[in-house]
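User: Hey, quick favor. My workstation is busy. Could you predict this chain's structure for me?
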Amino acid sequence: MRAELKGLSSDLAEKVGAHLMMAIQLIDEDPQLAYRHAEAARRRAARLPIAREAVAETAYAAGMYEEALTQYRTMRRMTGSADVIPVMVNCLRALGRFRDALALIAEGEREIEDPSMRVELIIESARVRIEMAQTEEGLRILRREIERPTCRHPRLAQARLLYAYADQLFDQGDHEQAYHFFSLSARLDPDGTTSALDRLDEMDGFVMEFDEEEFADEPDDAEEDDDAFDDTTSLDQAEYGDSEEADSQ
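Assistant: No problem, here it is.
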């Protein structure tokens, strides 16, 4: 943020920075107010990609998908980066503009180089197909990337891919296989970024309730599972391909 603000006068940089910080702080608890702060920053510094990004992300969080899409498009033009394509697809999906989403997916397949963003595009592609009532095709897209990855998946990206597949299996009523893939996702994501651990708890029939502040100062002694896959290894058939249940998917 500081690097982009350096091009502004000191007073303007201070105001823009304050609005951006408020947008960041409020995005989870009050996305509408966060959006207004981001928009205030954009009005003062419309040429800064960080201001456009703040408006896009807060608009998305507030469910303002058309506005978010507009700002992500502007960011793409300003930065030349294709990494915003997956979230743009998500916006189009939320707006029910499936043909536009498919066209943008095709662009992303040609342009996106970052492995994590390629995985996000695959996840969004599957979601679009499922919402188009092409459920089998959506599941096939996810399963194919798990079994025959098109790139070397970073650890968290791989966890997100497994989570997305498990989530769709659960929605289709295949709870046994969903539990299996949630478990694989959780092993790659011990910090709980994907919520796979929470989904496993729910499927096991219990939900823990506690005061987070009570444990805020305690050290984190959790150790990573030694059996978890490393970030350069895709899930191979040995992990889930030998079961009759997996082969039936």
